[in-house]
Amino acid sequence: MSYIEAIKLRVPQINAVLLSYPDITHLGALPYLVGKCGLNCPIYATVPVYKMGQLFIYDWLSGHNNVEDFSLFNFDDIDVAFEKVQQVKYSQTILLKGDNGLQITPYPAGHMIGGAIWKLTKMGDEEIVYAIDFNHKKERHLNGCTFDGIGRPNLLITDSFNALYKQPSRKIRDELLVTKLLGTVRDGGDVMIVIDTAGRVLEIAHLLDQLWQNSEAGLMTYNLVMLSHVASSVVESAKSQVEWMSDKILRSFEVGRHNPFQFRYVKFCHSLMDLSRVRSPKVVLVSGLDMESGFSRELFYDWCVDTKNTIILTGRSGERTLGSRLIRISEAREKKTFINNFVTLEVKRRIRLEGQDLDEFLIKKKEKEQEAARLRLENVRLKARLENAESSDESDDEDAIAFAGPAPVAKAISLITPSIDTPFPILENPFSFQERCYDIIWKFDHQSKTSFKGGKKAFPMFPFHEEKTKWDDYGEIIRPEEYTIVEPTTLQPKEEEPEPKQEPKDIQPLPIAPIIEEWPTKCVSYKNRFEILCKVEFIDFEGRSDGESIKKILAQIKPKQLIIVHGKTDATLHLKQYCEQNQVVQGKIFTPTLGEVVDATIESHIFQVTLSDQLMSSLIFQTVKEAELSWIDARLLRKKPLVAQSTEEDDKEIVEIENQPEAAAPLSRKSSREAAILDLYGDGTEVVPMDTTESLQQPLRETQPMADDTDEPAAKRAAAVTADVLSLEVLPASNIPPHQAVFVNDPKLSDLKQLLATSGFHAEFSAGVLYVNNIACIRRNEAGRFHVEGCACDDYYRIREIVYAQFAIV
User: Which GO terms describe its biological process (predicted)?
Assistant: First the structure.
């Protein structure tokens, strides 16, 4: 909660929330932030994350409510939070609301159904990629992650959870699972497979259902159970999300209409009572990966003391959880090292009220019901009086309608109105003369005195006001309180006996038991010591990329800046050192702690410069798509403003820009004095056109000390640079360094194939390589570079020229 309190301060600054996965780790705090912290911004998630995320939190909250009074949020808060979620699809670009120009795009991440890698772009050029817990491997029900739509991002946010972890192969993992299952159930024991609610459980349930269908495995005679509060709903949702699964499942569904989640052997249980009705031996997929709440913890209390049973954990959780303690016990038993098999746990139970506690509860409940009935009856009467006053017609005789004064000595008639909600009537105030009492004789005398001659003779009558029935567009207005059903008091039936016997005087009749729709309960907590006698195993079904794969992916992406989150300290430092030693990241690497703010601003190395007329006229532009690019070799001059410029040569400082391999960027031909942005970040000199008036008024973001300012203090130099005007001037031809040609564009091999076909060449694909006339082949490497190989002949050079024509070469 301390971390949540820190987030509360930043809630007004949050523009959007992006949900990557549906499990508790990635969206568990969302109902609390929306319901209690006032988070009111767009929330984006893929369709499966939206559906499965609700089931995750429903099951998690139900597990807590079964054993304790959980008050942080309730089911209504969950519904309100997910009503704000906007569902998106993969590769769909969404423009965030507001004028910040941010666009978000989700890409497949594997790991769980609907998992997303989020790409954020600003004004179409700056990229920020959020990719954690992804899985590049293809699984039974999911495809691997893809970085096809992601280039070289300016900032990559990833995790180091598996940086030091090496996964076993899929074949070894599956064989180990089958071996443990068969060994346990054949000995008459039960197997508890601890898994999450609606994420990785789909992979294991799909695997086990196929094993049960295989007659050679010998598992058909045993029961396979999925235990959670939302087990059947999870499978029903999975059936309708086949298009989000692997290509193999999608083809199987399209061809034979075979849905892999139409389970034949999986039984669904939603309580421990349902599970007790299933015959043993059985294999139970139980929710609650950390085993801190839910069915996994409650089942552990009963099963851990039996040596025949086996507990299989399929994922890791926090350090202080029961799941992590069992994993350590499993590793110690595998290494045959000594470890304490006793654990002391806090046992939470919800028990029924009995005896004096029940009597006190019923008394308080009855008092609350009577008070609520009294208030409800008063509201009904007040509403009825108001409706009668509005619906009554105007009478010719006002004295017959309104009582205009205190009556003489008269008896007050107190109306006794029994309530439909209380077993005894409520007496109204007998001295309320103005509202409830009428003196008929006094009214008769009053009317006879004020009547005119020839008037009709009036007789004393009770006042009567005709109630007009109110109607709406659907008919008569219905009052729910008029249709309340009174529960009859249950009495013990009398037995008819031919010869009734007289009971002794000291025997009293039994009291009538109260009717209680839902039996009241209370929560208790106590500590208990358990000895773990059952077998404990850890089999990795997390579905995350291991450390070696993460390093290869980072080396392929090569982000300019990197933020490492969600990992232990040693794993985080290991990944950081690897990136530094192998020069994977060009800029900074951040390893923030919980709650730390990271300043990863990309515009921190941008300066305003002006281009001289001579330099503009010497540039050679290359057109690519909608931009014009040119290579710049120039010298940077820093001058005083024109109003205070000195004529001395010392007022001018020259810095030559040499060997800039990426000095190509869009530059328009509007004006030779047009202002521009000089990006000195990293190894590039990027020139981007911008309006002259805006550039001159915008202050410099950051300044760096020049090479010739070693004698001047740093603060004084920074102030001088801020006040100066930067300008690019032409370098002498003898000082221009050579540079390697830069090819700017990203054509596709399929487009090249069509272009070569129109030029008279026969091109075809084979294993991702484009073969042209059996003379040359064109392929792309891991970094995206084109390779053209072939025999030296005229056709080869023609093919190479066609490929070159697709790029802007600067």
Answer: mRNA 3'-end processing by stem-loop binding and cleavage
Q: Which residues contact 179 (CB under 8 A, 6 or more apart)?
A: none
If you compute the radius of gyration of the chain from its CA atoms, what whole number of angstroms results? Answer: 40
Q: Distance between CA 810 and CA 803 in Å, rounded? A: 15
**DSSP conformational letter for 376:** H
Distance of CA 633 to the CA centre of its chain: 48
- Residue 410's pLDDT band (cuts 50, 70, 90): very low
Give SS3 for 195: strand
SS3 769: strand
Alpha helices in 673-731 (DSSP H): 692-697, 714-723
What is the C-alpha end-to-end distance of the chain, expressed in Å? Answer: 55
Residue 658: pLDDT over 50: no
Between CA 230 and CA 286 the distance in angstroms is 11
- 155-185 residue pLDDT tens: 999 999 989 988 888 889 999 999 999 999 9
Position 358 scores a pLDDT of: 82
- Give the full edge-to-edge strand order of the sheet including 102-108: 94-95, 102-108, 116-122, 126-130, 155-159, 562-565, 589-590
Residues 4-26, mean pLDDT to the nearest whole number: 90
Cα 760 → chain centroid: 53
Torsion of CA 566, 572, 575, 580, to 10 degrees: 120
> pLDDT over 70 for what percent of the chain?
75
Contact 686, 678 (CB under 8 A): yes
Q: Cα 356–361–363 angle (5° rounding)? A: 95
CA separation for the pair 550, 555 (Å, rounded): 9
φ and ψ at residue 679, rounded to 5 degrees? -95, 110
> Does this model's pTM top 0.70?
no
Burial grade of 418 (CB within 10 A; 0-12, 13-18, 19 or more): exposed
Give the residue among 166, 206, 205, 159 at the shortest CA–CA distance from 20. Answer: 159
Spacing of C-alpha 85 from chain mean position: 9
Whole-number Å distance between alpha carbons of 608 and 605: 10
The model's pLDDT over 349-381, given as tens digits with 9 standing for 90+, comes to: 888 887 888 888 888 888 888 898 889 888 888
Domains of the chain: 2-165+543-590 (3.60.15.10), 170-341+532-538 (3.40.50.10890), 603-735 (no CATH), 743-809 (3.30.310)
- Side chain identity at residue 711, one-letter code: D
Q: Is the confidence at residue 246, as pLDDT, over 60?
A: yes
- B/e letters for 72-86, b = 16+ CB within 10 Å, e = fewer, are ebeeebbeebbeebe
